[in-house]
Design a protein that fits this description.
Blueprint (H helix, E strand, L loop, with lengths): L1 H10 L1 H16 L7 H16 L5 E6 L15 E2 L6 E10 L1 H6 L5 E8 L10 E7 L13 H12 L7 E5 L5 H9 L3 E5 L3 H6 L10 E7 H14 L2 E7 L3 H9 L11 H4 L6 E6 L10 E2 L3 E10 L4 E10 L7
Parallel strand pairs: 1-3, 6-7, 6-8
Antiparallel strand pairs: 1-2, 3-4, 4-10, 5-8, 5-9, 10-12, 11-12, 12-13
Helix pairs in contact: 2-3
């Protein structure tokens, strides 16, 4: 088993990046054109095609939706060549469909993998989240007040409370949280979309963000947990189920306690997970796809939880080889 895991870490990493590159290249063609569905469809088709030649026995546990809702990369779909390791796969072929359609920053193609049974099967619903970087691990809690968490982060980072920066999705549901953050004197960075990039930002020192707060997508929370485990950060989450149908779907996925607070280890078990992403539009972590006279340039990141290794990959793709990616 140790030998097999070594193979996944060393030999599959570049294959995973090829999959996110393919999705990013295809969806970037739709940047700023106002067509969310076409951008997302292009990313899904390209990523699925890339998966077909990767030697793995992958099962989508976080994907585009359930089988009846998503024709490709649906939850439960088998991907890969059918050879190699059995893996849980979590994907968001285009994290930020609205971002891409508008031409806004922080859209990316995202992939995460872990040994079978290691990723939480999260239903397509909301999740209340809090995320921080390595210096603040253990200092925050989903059940603590906004004020308690912000003061804890300020103390850990050894900075005045008015220099702490919070990233929050710009939604009406966060009005009360935003007011509390402002009363504490903290700075706020409001984002329209880009839930995964927002969760990663506190673990990237150059981002200028110290903590993520608020409610976003549950699937995105699991993917972000893989990335934060690789980066040495922390995320906690609790499902925000809106109706009986969502509650039934959560139970069907094996979640018995619907009000449970999920820790990092419960969102992604062990340290064999990997994360890869390619920028679609320029963002906090990655540059977007740049189209050149002869092809395009992509900027990607690939990370491994076990070693905390972070690799940035810049690639040039020539037009005549685009179908192969």
């Amino acid at each position: 088993m140790r030998r097999q895991r070594w193979f996944m870490d060393r030999n599959l990493a570049l294959d995973f990046v090829r999959a996110t590159e393919a999705a990013a290249l295809s969806s970037a063609l739709w940047m700023g054109k106002g067509n969310e569905k076409s951008a997302d469809h292009a990313a899904v088709e390209a990523m699925r095609k890339a998966f077909s030649v990767i030697d793995m026995q992958g099962t989508i546990v976080i994907g585009e939706g359930e089988r009846d809702e998503a024709p490709m990369l649906y939850i439960g779909e088998k991907v890969g060549s059918g050879k190699g390791l059995k893996l849980d796969i979590a994907v968001d072929p285009l994290e930020g469909t609205t971002i891409t359609a508008r031409g806004d920053p922080n859209a990316m193609s995202v992939f995460a993998a872990a040994p079978e049974g290691c990723l939480l099967n999260a239903p397509d619903t909301y999740m209340d989240k809090i995320a921080v970087g390595p210096k603040c691990v253990g200092a925050i809690g989903l059940d603590s007040s906004v004020e308690e968490n912000l003061h804890a982060v300020a103390k850990k980072l050894d900075k005045p409370i008015d220099e702490v920066t919070v990233i929050i999705l710009d939604r009406d549901r966060h009005k009360e949280t935003i007011e509390k953050v402002r009363k504490c004197g903290c700075r706020i960075r409001l984002i329209r979309d880009g839930d995964i990039a927002g969760a990663l930002a506190p673990a990237i020192e150059e981002s200028g963000v110290d903590i993520l707060m608020g409610t976003g997508g549950a699937p995105e929370g699991v993917i972000a947990a893989v990335a934060l485990k690789c980066l040495g950060g922390e995320i906690q989450g609790r499902l925000k189920l809106r109706n009986d149908e969502e509650k039934q779907r959560a139970r069907k996925m094996g979640i018995r306690d619907l009000s449970k607070k999920f820790t990092m280890e419960e969102l992604v078990k062990g340290n064999e997970a990997m994360f890869a992403a390619t920028g679609v539009t320029d963002g906090t972590i990655l540059k977007g796809v740049q189209f050149l006279s002869h092809g395009a340039k992509t900027h990607s990141i690939v990370m491994r939880a076990k070693t905390k290794t972070i690799r940035f990959i810049e690639a040039i793709h020539h037009f005549e080889h685009f179908p192969e990616y």
